[in-house]
Amino acid sequence: DNGLAYPDTCVGTDSHTPHVDALGVIAVGVGGLEAENVMLGRASWMRLPDIIAVELTGKPQPGITATDVVLSLTEFLRKEKVVGAYLEFRGEGAAALTLGDRATISNMAPEYGATAALFYIDQQTIDYLNLTGRDADQVKLVETYAKEAGLWADTLNDAVFERTLHFDLSTVVRTLAGPSNPHRRLPVSALAERGIAVDLDKAKAEEAEGLMPDGAVIIAAITSCTNTSNPRNVIAAGLLARNANKYGLVRKPWVKTSLAPGSKAVQLYLQESGLEAELEKLGFGVVAFACTTCNGMSGALDPKIQQEIIDRDLYATAVLSGNRNFDGRIHPYAKQAFLASPPLVVAYSIAGTMRFDIEKDVLGVVDGQEIRLKDIWPTDEEIDAVVKAAVKPEQFRQVYIPMFAKQDDKAEQIDPLYQWRPMSTYIRRPPYWEGALAGERTLKGMRPLAVLPDNITTDHLSPSNAILASSAAGEYLTKMGLPEEDFNSYATHRGDHLTAQRATFANPQLVNEMAVVEGEVKKGSLARVEPDGTVMRMWEAIETYMNRKQPLIIVAGADYGQGSSRDWAAKGVRLAGVEAIVAEGFERIHRTNLIGMGVLPLEFKPGTTRKTLGLDGTETYDVIGQRKPRADLTLVVHRRNGESLEVTVTCRLDTAEEVSIYEAGGVLQRFAQDFLESEVA
After folding, report:
1. Which residues pair with 647 in a beta bridge?
2. All structural domains of the chain
3. Quick one: which of 214, 260, 180 has its CA closest to 507?
4. Across the strands, what pairs with 318?
5. Closest CA relative to residue 517, chosen from 532, 536, 489
6. Which pLDDT score is estimated for 1?
7. Other Cβ atoms closer than 10 A to 39
8. Four-CA torsion 658, 663, 664, 668, nearest 10 degrees
9. Reduced to 3 states, what is the DSSP secondary structure of residue 127?
10. Residue 225 pLDDT more than 80?
């Protein structure tokens, strides 16, 4: 660029943008609304983060994958509370990791809460750039610049950090994560003691009767950017499939299997190694080069299998090599989901049930020999040999050079103004200047729409997976004339607010502590309308409050808004009339999305929670004080018995820019005001 070289940076609207941090590039994910703000001419501001060193020592034991490492790190780093921090991985352990393994670790930054997860530039980086077909001059420039500018690993050994964490890679064992959270590590050796791999005899008896077993794995998917961009992980899955095929092992008939690599280069090196056919034989054919099961895009189940799950109320599960397994995310009929390495996913497709103790139980008997996981698991030497022989620079050039090639645009010019179609269920003229967004936010007399526990994810707030006929969105689409087989997923309808609004809190695994039925909190997409005290489906409650023009608030626990950088997790609540959310803590991207929609994030002071305050949803709430970056505000709680309580909370508008956007009413309103002011000037 004009003869100048400078460090690369990347800001992306996917929460897993930190994947790129493995290259030594500062890459962070932002919410779609924040990106929209930039597209409309404003800056993306961020407070100076905590910068934390993570010293990696030792090396993984034989047979341990990068997935095992990152799931163990995710548990460790969540406990160390690194939310919003920039992490720098360093030490002998980091130096020995391949770039693919580093990328697997960096990719899951949002799961352990960090904003960035950097590795230093070193010979591993250079080797990767060469392996993936980068231009030789560019690779030389990267190496020269990093060494001259003090960004090479050796020159950063003496860097001083206020906080350093230590993690020994040799302690990592083969592991899953789940259920429900990526940071809930589940060593496979603990499957029985945690009550998951139990009653296998019962499951086998059910299978012998032609039934699906308890704990049936209905989805086994090799998917997501976390693992399919790491050649070692994908090759390991292919080799395990090859070994299983040699023994004549097959997947269970109720398991829906798929392979969705993040890059077409993956298919090329699987073909080069002869492993694509081995995976296909077990049902793991390539279905797409995109986000699929990990983002709830697992597609429909066989109708007979789905009906059996419903009729028998089966505990059905999913196993995937993704990065998220939040409640209700993967498929509405998979009651729980577990994260695993790609080869372990293949093994579970053969086992067919989570009641199977994957390292101990017998996968099959061949010529009198009992076949267990250890008999088909490939060695590290096998994996490395195939990677070396089959992964080639020309594969990456073949895929990516055409992708970035300039093309003459000779397409017919069309009207830049979109012709809105009033009956469309996919793209509809948005309502962001109307309804709740057009009215004044008084922050007074707010009633709780929900009182929620810890770890509420964007999948609770606005799921992206399949739309069920019995859901509010399903009923709406039926009225619009769509047959159920064409419902598709919530994510595909996000351009139609009438469908997407009905996704708000539509997760069947939601726990709204206000939804008390017969003395117990009932799980589901439920709310309690106050002051009536009537429990009903969430969408009907939202409609009731919208008709009353009732301002709303949400009260929540810690880590509110984990997960995807999903705009509709903020849009849905704002359109419902939510003016503020008070929680014990927020995930960074969702917090900025809330501000982009004009919703005020408030944080309880340490030691103060909905439980210590005895909040049950019968109250009304006011917010008093001047909104400045991280200022103390007063949350006034008016109890039903007439008592009032003043609670000091932190205003989580963290920068002056965020205050400016919030006060305008959101990103679009800020842009409109700026535009009108510039026109007057």
Report:
1. 635
2. 9-171 (3.30.499.10), 175-396 (3.30.499.10), 435-459+508-680 (3.20.19.10)
3. 180
4. 219, 337
5. 536
6. 56
7. 10
8. 40
9. helix
10. no
Tokens 């190496």 found at = 143
Q: Nearest-5° angle of CA 488, CA 107, CA 654?
A: 90
User: If DSSP codes are grouped into helix, strand and coil, which group holds residue 10?
Assistant: strand
Amino acid identity for residue 89 in this structure: F
DSSP string for 497-548? HHHHGGGTT--TT---TT-EETTEEPPSSEEEETTTTEEEEHHHHHHHHHHH
Residue 561's region, left for phi above 0, alpha for psi from -120 to 50, else beta, is: left
* Residue 601 neighbours by CB distance under 10 Å: 25
Under a CB-based contact definition with an 8 Å cutoff, are residues 456 and 570 in contact?
no
How many residues comprise the chain?
681
The DSSP bridge pattern shows strands 9-12 and 26-29 to be: parallel
Q: Which amino acid is at 534?
A: T
Q: How far apart are CA 427 and CA 420, in angstroms?
A: 8
Q: Where would I find the H helices in 81-196?
A: 92-96, 99-107, 109-112, 123-131, 136-148
Residue 297 has pLDDT above 80, yes or no: no
298 or 105, higher pLDDT:
105
pTM summary value = 0.88
Classified as helix, coil or strand, 66 is helix
Q: Which residue in 617, 538, 602 sits closest to 573, CA to CA?
A: 538
**Each residue's pLDDT tens digit, 586-619:** 998 899 999 999 999 999 999 999 999 999 999 9
Kindly give the interhelix angle for 588-596 and 568-576, rounded to the nearest 10 degrees.
40
Query: Would you state the torsion angle of the CA atoms of residues 95, 101, 105, 107, taken in this order, to the nearest 10 degrees?
Result: 130
User: In this predicted structure, which of 108-117, 278-287, 560-569 has the lowest mean pLDDT?
Assistant: 560-569
* Other Cβ atoms within 10 Å of 24 Cβ, number: 22
Residue 675 amino acid letter: F
Tokens standing for 332?
A: 């509405």
Nearest to 506 by CA among 527, 485, 482: 527
